[in-house]
Amino acid sequence: MNRPPIALLAVDVQRDFLPGGSLAVSDGDAVVAPLRALSDQVSLVVATRDFHPLHHCSFLERGGPWPPHCIIGTPGATIHPDIDAMADLIVSKGTDPEVDAYSGFDGTGLAGILRSAGVERVVVGGLATDYCVRATALAARREGFETEVVLAAVRAVDVHAGDGDRSVEQMHRAGVAIRESV
Fold first, then answer.
1. What is the total count of domains within the chain?
2. What is the mean pLDDT of residues 136-162?
3. What is the CATH number of the domain that holds 71?
């Protein structure tokens, strides 16, 4: 019996979220190797990316919480080359200057794309646990996908100490399976 395809959602592994980026996640580049290993266990790899216009509403200058990051056409918006090379599909979020979008499902059509590919289960990793990974995993559950987050493949911003751990607990309570390693 054939099993339905499984998709890996590699969330926002972009230069601005990696060490040296404008909104760097501590140890963010450590997610790359586990994501590469996970890509061998799935049939479809989707990379999500923040892809903001110059004056996005999430930026400090507009009253948002973040410094400018992942601006369309800048090096900071580029996906890590290893993730880019393994991605079957890239979805862009946060492209409307007036709408914040943390989830890979926000305005991207991702749920329909996955359903049309026969996907029923998604594995989520990337950056950052307490923002875009959490939002993507929770949205996947709301959309009816069996959803799993692999802790070895995520890192948190932890604006407030423990945000990442609290986000993992929130995802778990919402029915997201949590796996420690690849």
1. 1
2. 97
3. 3.40.50.850
Show the domain range for 127: 6-179
**DSSP symbols for 52-110:** B-TT-TTBGGGT-SB-S-SBTTSGGGPBPHHHHHH-SEEEEE--STT----STTTTT-H
Query: Would residue 12 show up in a list of annotated catalytic residues for this protein?
Result: yes
Whether 40 is a known active-site residue: answer no
Active-site entry in 29, 50, 93, 106: 93
Torsion angles phi and psi, residue 101, rounded to 5 = -150, 110
Q: Is residue 19 part of a domain?
A: yes
Catalytic residue from among 12, 29, 50, 130: 12
- pLDDT the model gives residue 4: 76
What is the pTM assigned to this prediction? 0.96
pLDDT digits (tens, 9 = 90+) for 21-32: 999 999 999 999
**Residue 1, in any domain of the structure:** no
Annotated active-site residue 93? The verdict is: yes
